[in-house]
Amino acid sequence: MHIKRQRLQPLNKRIPKNPKYSHVKATVDTGASLGKYLARLEDMRKNYRFRPDEIFKRLKATTFVQLVVQVALTRMQDDEEVEDEEPTPLPEDESPPDTARSTLNSIVHGIGELDVADDEPSQPPSPRLPPTSPYLLLDVRDTDEYQRCHVISAKSYPVAMLSRSCNYFTQDILDYSNKPGHIIILYDDNERMAPQAATVFVQRGVDNVFLLSGGMRVLHRVFPQGIITGSLPPSCLPSPPPSSRRSQRTPRHPPALPALPIPS
After folding, report:
1. Which regions are flagged for Pro residues bias (predicted)?
2. Could you read off the pLDDT of 50-73 as tens digits, one per residue?
3. For residues 55 and 200, what is the distance between their CA atoms, to the nearest angstrom?
4. CB 159 within 8 A of CB 241
5. How many other CB atoms are found less than 10 A from the CB of residue 36?
6. Sign of dihedral through CA atoms 110, 115, 120, 124?
7. What's the whole-model pTM score?
8. Contacts of residue 170, Cβ cutoff 8 Å, sequence gap at least 6
9. Up-side HSE of residue 117: CA atoms within 13 Å toward CB?
10. 143-169 per-position pLDDT tens digit
11. Positive or negative CA dihedral for 188, 193, 199, 200?
12. What letter does residue 179 receive in the DSSP assignment?
């Protein structure tokens, strides 16, 4: 019985994929395509953990880096303006104020540190200065993981702090909480703990909290240098490309024939 095969059109033929070049990307942007859309969905599935019931806001890695650079440039300009200003000279008849520590003059006159400390009345604690940075970056991983590797300008805030019945927010968080023009950013390595922490923040009345989408894994992929200090954990390292060497197969030899008797 003869089976008639359907002839495929040239445009419908599938190009066989070679795993050796699967990590190679196109350098020319040809616009939107189905392949790019599927690649974006796959990237979101691997690096992001979106949930339909999220009550917090997200911050992209590129937006966060722009914010960090803008704050750094503003501080550099402020420092240059302070250096350009000339210090105001003191009048000749005025002397610098005395401090609690003994100086050479006090030692000559027989006044030591203990005498000054005993006579000086106790001063109330100085009030806290308002935050100068528009954002507060918190690392919700353990303290050991934070010391090994963290994003620059970040502060350690282990997620276990939220399990306390009281005093679960630090003074820095209280200074930034719901303050106009200021935000709180939470992150971890790959969104395994930060979404839960951001949800608890919102449930406890902190409305200006943001989650760094993708965590350090996406941040290192977008900006591999200058933004993260320390040695990256294995969960943040990109998966290595497939090996270009083909597996060397051992040649198969035919089985040896049994020795035949030699006729005499």
Report:
1. 122-133, 253-264
2. 677 788 889 888 899 999 999 988
3. 10
4. no
5. 13
6. positive
7. 0.63
8. 157, 161
9. 5
10. 999 999 999 999 999 999 999 888 899
11. negative
12. -
